[in-house]
Amino acid sequence: MYKPKYLFKNVISGRNSTYSYSNTSNLKDYGNALIVSKLSGYEFERHRNSDMTPDDLRQKLIRRGTDFDRLIKSHDNHKKYESDMVQSLEKSGFKVKVVNSLNYNDDSVNWADIVFPTGGDGTFLLAAGRVRTNSMPVIGFNSSPARSEGRLCLPKSYSYNIEKAIEKLRAGQFEWLRRSRIRVTITGETQDIVSTPLYVLRDQVSFKPSQYRIEKGSKLIPHLALNEVFIGETLSARVSNLELWLDKSNESTTIKCSGLCISTGTGSTSWHLSMNRLPAQTVETLLTLLHYPEPERTEKARQLCKMYNDALIFNATETRLAYTIRENICLGVWPQGRDIKRRGFVDTMKVKSKCFDAALVVDGGISYEFNDGTIAELSVLPEDALLTVKIFE
Questions:
Q1: How far is CA 95 from CA 33, 163, 333, in A?
Q2: 5: pLDDT confidence band, cut at 50, 70 and 90?
Q3: d(CA 362, CA 365)
Q4: CA distance 328 to 163
Q5: CB neighbours (10 Å) of residue 180?
Q6: Per-residue pLDDT tens over the stretch 152-171
Q7: Which residue from 212, 227, 208, 240 is spatially nearest to 354, judged by alpha carbons?
Q8: Sign (positive/negative) of CA torsion 190, 192, 198, 203?
Q9: What angle do CA 316, 319, 322 make, to 5 degrees?
Q10: Are 117 and 143 spatial neighbours (Cβ–Cβ below 8 Å)?
Q11: What is the gyration radius of the CA atoms in the chain, in angstroms?
Q12: Are the C-beta atoms of 124 and 386 separated by less than 8 Å?
């Protein structure tokens, strides 16, 4: 019978803003370290098939077509990394607890002085989502730097050398960085608004909607968006019908589109960049129509694309919101422009749903019902910033 080595071992361009890096400090006063560990694919399968033996689960996954050996290798590598994190933190004087998405809760955050997401960007977003103060550091380690980009984590060189990273943190060889986050207030007059965690299926965890229920009226949702807020119909083939107010204007604009994405500077390297990225093929076609010389056309298209795409990324401390209207419908009675730019920067935004089965999704992980008549107000406030670090190479 196969027994994994580490199964469930129980041991998280805009203008520059007024935020800036503070003077260097250290972590000597931080005692309780909470590791928010990635839930491996094998752990997830074990959890949702808890009534099966490991051998039966193995056979089921193989019949399904899963590369079981790769699944186990990835699991073991991650759990080994998690174990190394525990040992390194304890060696440095921290008291350590380990949780994952199945048991990460407010009690865990209240116990901690500092949070160490151990996984990738998804794990970092999960960990940061429950830290609602701007004074608790969240410092990410990429447990699989060869396979994961980990933009929110420490540089990959430190992922390969945990002890060196912790020594530098303890010695104060870093700068504090406060990443702006989006605050969302929802007004739902027609129904209660309930959130659903998307990182696990609803029938596979002990999910209690009452824990996240927002009663009728105006309420601040308990999740701050570090990357972005997406609003739109849950069925991607259905048109999203939304009414927008920009920067507290009294005049609104109604749009029909494939959804609305409101991003932070941190999220500008993620979905914001992907949906706005200019492909070289498009630029090369434009140069062809302009009769640009063929020998130089491909290289010129590449250069222009790089300049344009690089300009889409903005500072993580930016206090404005970057919005993007996905595939804005501009035909017939819905003319080009429709009194609003397809993308831009705003200080605040209000969105009213005219949708049938829509959702407001925070960082791709928490979904709120957002149907006809529901209103969301989005803003960035200093007290909502996430405290993390920029470590020196």
A1: 6, 16, 63
A2: very low
A3: 6
A4: 49
A5: 26
A6: 999 999 999 999 999 999 88
A7: 240
A8: negative
A9: 80
A10: no
A11: 23
A12: no
Instruction: Give me the amino acid identity at 312.
Output: L
Q: Which two tokens stand for residue 203?
A: 């029938």
Answer yes or no: are the C-beta atoms of 130 and 104 closer than 8 Å: yes
pTM of the predicted model over 0.70? yes
Specify the amino acid at residue 160: Y
Distance (Å, rounded) from C-alpha 130 to C-alpha 223?
7
pLDDT tens column, 280-303:
999 999 999 999 988 889 999 999
Q: CA 57 to CA 312: how far, in whole Å?
A: 45
Residue matched to tokens 């099966």:
52
3-state secondary structure the chain: CCCCCCCCCCCCCCCCCCCCCCCCCCCCCCCEEEEEECCCHHHHHHHHCCCCCHHHHHHHHHHHCCCHHHHHHHHHHHHHHHHHHHHHHHHCCCEEEEECCCCCCHHHHHHCCEEEEEECHHHHHHHHHCCCCCCCCECEEECCCCCCCCCCECCHHHHCCHHHHHHHHHHCCEEEEEECCEEEEEEECCCCECEEECCCCHHHCCCCHHHCCECCEEEECCCCECCEEEEEECCCCCCEEEEEEECCCCCCEEEEECCEEEECCHHHHCHHHHHHCCCHHHHHHHHHHCCCCHHHHHHHHHHHHHHHHHCCCCCCCCCCEEEEECCCCCCCCCCCCCCCCCEEEECCEEEEECCCCEEEEECCCEEEECCCCCEEEEEECHHHCEEEEEECC
Write the burial class of residue 270 (CB in 10 Å: 0-12 exposed, 13-18 middle, 19+ buried). Answer: buried
Task: Give the tokens for residue 139.
Answer: 């410092």
Whole-number Å distance between alpha carbons of 94 and 277 = 43
Q: For residue 10, which phi and psi values (nearest 5 degrees)?
A: -100, 60
Residue identified by tokens 């941190």 is 266
CB 114, CB 85: distance < 8 Å: no
- Single-letter amino acid code for the residue at 317: T
Q: Which two tokens stand for residue 303?
A: 């250069």
222, β-bridge pairs: none
* Identity of the amino acid at 2: Y
